[in-house]
Amino acid sequence: MSGPAVALTVAGSDSGGGAGLQADLHTFAAFGVHGTTAVTAVTVQNTVGVTGVHEIPPQIVADQIGAVVEDLRPTAVKTGMLASAPIIEAIGAAFRQHGIGRGGTIPLVLDPVCASMHGDPLLEPDALDALRGLFALATVVTPNLDETQLLVGTRDQRDAARALLALGAEHALVKGGHGTGPRSRDLLTDGVTEIWLDAERIETGNTHGSGDTLAAATAARLAGGDSLPDAVRAAKRYVTRAVATSYSVGAGHGPVGHPPADEPVRASAAGDEVVAARAGATP
Ligand SMILES: Nc1ncnc2c1ncn2[C@@H]1O[C@H](COP(=O)(O)OP(=O)(O)O)[C@@H](O)[C@H]1O
Ligand SMILES: Cc1ncc(COP(=O)(O)O)c(N)n1
User: Fold this and answer.
1) Does 177 have pLDDT greater than 80?
2) What's the N-to-C CA distance of the chain in angstroms?
């Protein structure tokens, strides 16, 4: 007996369907992974911008994480919009309790979302310290250059990676996606090895949800048992296809596409063990 690998996203809802947990669920599905959610906030959002945010009570966010982990046993977790310091603190406590992130058994992809691509805030200004505090749990933290500027005060990819690792992340993936050159170059490092992930820059304004898709694809591959570098390499190949298949909808920035993955996750060994244990069999 085996089922699909399970991944959990802890993220906000984008009513426009382009980013946030909607992009994460599309990505998990494209990889054949069963997606679960802990919703942190409901945004009032379309392709033009964000006009409202309703935060979910911190305890309800933590309870969603607990309910998912105890029953569905995700083998990777991804975070996106976390909204506020009290929500982040509740998430950190839940992660530690359930073995999510460094020191636990479930890898954590932490996308430190601070604003939407329209420049609308998705994190309260006084929550930056709380967000930095969560980095010590991250298997990988995946900021863009606007986020590195806010979080560690630099837009230099190498300097930013160094500062993120100093805050406790195991790996840093510093994205170069918002530059203007002909290539989209992201830096992945654990402080010892540097891997440059290089792809053609595709000329389009329809990149809504690209960052969520990269982080969710990484979590999907991790859920299937990939090493972190292999998961990130596969995710970068996938997000490049996602940008290539982006489309126009609405009056503003359209979303990236979510074509079926070339490198899907068929099932997870951990998932098999859980199913076997539930059935009373010896795994
Ligand atoms: N126009 C583009 N062409 C190709 N890849 C892109 C493009 N825009 C973004 N990417 C890639 O998509 C991923 C997400 O990057 P980015 O858009 O910077 O994230 P975020 O949504 O967090 O701002 C990165 O790997 C980046 O290099
Ligand atoms: C709920 C939510 N989460 C994340 C993003 C970031 O995505 P983008 O940078 O593409 O706007 C967003 N706009 N909304």
Assistant:
1) no
2) 11
Q: How far apart are CA 108 and CA 138, in angstroms?
A: 5
Ligand nearest to the CA of 235: 1
Ligand 2 and 81: CB distance under 6 A: yes
Alpha carbon distances (Å) from 24 to 63, 110, 130, 179? 20, 13, 23, 24
Q: Is the pLDDT of residue 273 over 80?
A: no
pLDDT at residue 181, rounded to an integer: 77
Of 110, 204, 212, 256, which is best to mutate to test ligand 2, by the most ligand atoms within 8 angstroms of its C-beta? 212
Among all bound ligands, the one having the nearest atom to the CA of 186 is: 1
In 3-state terms the chain splits into helix, strand, coil percentages (rounded to 5) of 40, 20, 40
- pLDDT confidence of residue 182: 84
Q: How far apart are CA 94 and CA 86, in angstroms?
A: 12
Choose among 22, 28, 77: nearest CA to 209: 22
Q: Which of 99-103, 176-180, 203-207, 269-273 has the lowest mean pLDDT?
A: 269-273
Contact by Cβ (8 Å): 220, 35:
no
pLDDT digits 0-9 by tens, 11-38: 999 999 999 999 999 999 999 999 999 9
- Assign residue 79 a region: left if phi > 0, alpha if psi is -120 to 50, beta otherwise? beta
Contacts of 5 (CB under 8 A, 6+ apart): 32, 33, 34, 75, 76, 220, 223, 224, 265, 267, 268, 270, 271
Is 0.95 exceeded by the ipTM? yes
Residue 57 has pLDDT above 50, yes or no: yes
The pLDDT value recorded for residue 275 is 41
What are 222's two structure tokens?
């991790």
